[in-house]
Structures are given as structure tokens and as C-alpha cells.
Amino acid sequence: MPRSLLVTGAAGFIGANFVHYWRRQHPQDVIVAYDALTYAGNRENLATLEGSAGFHFVHADICDQATVLATLREHEVDTVVHFAAESHVDRSITGPDAFIETNVVGTHTLLKAAREYWLGGDAAMSHRFHHVSTDEVYGSLAADAPGFYEEQKYEPNSPYSASKAASDHLVRAYHHTYGLQVTTSNCSNNYGPYHFPEKLIPLCLTNILRGLPLPVYGDGSNIRDWLYVEDHCRGIENVLLAGRVGETYNIGGNNEWTNLDIVHLLCDQLDSRFGASPDLAQRFPDAPGASGGSARDLITFVEDRAGHDWRYAIDATKISDELGFSPAETFETGLSKTLDWYLDNETWWRPLLV
Q: Which residues of the chain have pLDDT under 50?
């Protein structure tokens, strides 16, 4: 039976990738893309779907309960996939209020509207509220510690991760208190197409192409587990189709890299492309590779940020054992696809640079 999905944050990085993925895999379903179009939301991310049957775009804030409820009713939504969030740690340090408003108040507003629509009548409707969270709610890991698992104690260390932890708890509470049919996924760092250029990989990629410094915090030894964004979308699909209601699933890439090693790999892959494609030198004359140089020469170490967690890593045993999920991409193959996408889509990222 076809579904009707409300996807919040649908014009953002992961949300847009999910919408495109779900459209390919489930073309019979209705998708309602809901986004406030703040700085990181770009309607161009969904341009190829505009006007197509079964796709609708709603420009609104998740904190607007009346609009959320009206949207649920108008499109007879039975599935909410909640991506909408402020997500940049540095921004949360300098301006935490927006993170509390969107991530905590916004999530609560969605839950209230969903409860009223799905559970407020004479009979409860079949439904699912899937909440997309982050591994950062668990805090930081020591070098030899096992990866974060679903029952891990929450220890958020930034206003961003604290706001996401609060939203996770609200989702859990609405399941246990009101019977809302929920699932939650906590993912490791995503990368891939449509990634806003403030984040490490697209920032360094676009800076190399412009011959600008590549800022690396501290000594670059911070470790992250990286997940190609389409693998993340596949993981969420598995949870929606077969995950147990009320459960949390950690979606990881089994793919730990130091920040410095990531930047090195990115530099080397891009230099290799310049060597193989002379036209890149004409398109990006300021890149070191355009004159036979090395992008590694652009690496600049900067003062570490406050509350910078040293290591994140996901233990994805649960989703693997229960739902058969495993990433399809290695970091090398996923990064190669990401570089190709950015090189092919300069008209997308160029206007987003400051």
C-alpha cells in the first residue's frame, strides 16, 4: 500500500538525498517535502522533482504547529521522517538559541501535531514517526573504547548535541507516554552530494578549487566515523520498513578516519583528477593542481574549537543483525563519488560560498 511521507528538512543535505533516494525506490509513494529554507536549506536540491506527480513542497517552519497539522491532514500523512535540525557545532557555540528553538521546540511541535492527527480521533491511525539523530549525543570516545551502542549513556558536550539529545528524549517520551509509533536512528558523520560548504569535506574541497587555506582544528587527530549519505538513506529505509517500533538503531559507516587523514585523501584524489583532466586547470586555475602543485600545501592548522569531542564511532551491530544493513560504500569510493558530484555541479555550490 502506498505511503504518504512528510519529510522535514527536505531541502537540506541529508533530507534532500533521502527524498531523491525514496523517490527512486518507492515511486508510488507521496512525498511532502517540508522545509523552512534557512541558510542550509536549498530548494534547488529538489528542483528535478518540482511539478512531478506525488511530490509536494511546503515552505514552513516545524515550530508552526498549525501548518504542520494542516499539512498532515491535507496529504493524509502516515509517515514522518524528521531531519530538520540546526546541525553545525561551531554555530551552536556562538548562537545556541536557534538550536534549542529548532531542535527541541521544533521536534516537540511535530510530536504534538502528529499525536493530534494520528491519535486524536476515535481510532488510532497506522503511522510511524522516524526521528533522525546523531552520534554526538553520546559524547566523546577514548582511542581504545568500543563504538557507541544504542544503550550508551548520553553525554552531549556542545549546545548542538545537547539539543539533539533533548529531542531524542522527547521522541522516546511520546512513545512511552502517548503510544506514538516511533523509531530513532543515530548516525555517524555523513558526506556526499548537496553537502553545505561549511562542513569539513565540502569546505576543503571548494577551498582547494579556489586555492584557499584548508583549516584543520588542532593537530587534526580528531577521529570520526564517516557514512556516505546514500548509505544513511538506505539505513533509514531499513528501519522504516522493518525496524521495531520504539527502538533506536545506530547507523554507522564502520569507517574511522582522523580529520587530517581525510584532508590528505581529499587533496590526493583531487590532485589526481587535475593530472588526468587538463580541462580542470582551465576551470579552476587557482587550485594547486592546475600548476602541478599539491593541495596538501594549503593545509593550515587552526586553534581547536571549544568542547571539541575527540572521537566518534558507531557500533552498528544492532541494525546489521536485525535488519541486515551494511554500508555499500567504502570511504574511498564514497569520497570519489562526492568529488565527481562537486566537480560536475559547480553551479550548485558556487553561489553558497561566502
A: none
Catalytic center residues: 135-136, 160
248-281 tens-digit pLDDT:
999 998 889 999 999 999 999 999 999 999 999 9
Return d(Cα 50, Cα 43) in angstroms, integer: 9
Phi–psi pair at 221, nearest 5 degrees:
-90, -5
Cα 254 to Cα 88, 141, 181, 187, 314, distances in angstroms: 23, 15, 29, 11, 7
pLDDT tens per residue, range 167-198: 999 999 999 999 999 999 999 999 999 999 98
Q: Does the CA dihedral 46-47-48-52 come out positive or negative?
A: positive
Give the predicted TM-score (pTM) of the model.
0.95
Cα dihedral: 206, 210, 216, 220 (round 10): 80
The reply to whether CATH 3.30.540.10 applies to domain 4-195+227-256+310-330 is no
Closest CA to 307 of 174, 218, 199: 218
Which run of H or E residues covers position 154? none
Quick check: 239 and 185 in contact, CB under 8 A?
yes
- Residue 168 phi/psi, 5-degree rounding, is -60, -45
pLDDT at residue 307, rounded to an integer? 65
Question: CA-based Rg of the chain, rounded to a whole angstrom?
Answer: 20
C-alpha–C-alpha distance, residues 309 and 312, integer Å: 8
Under 8 Å between Cβ of 218 and 312? no
Write down the residue that cell numbers 558530484 correspond to.
341
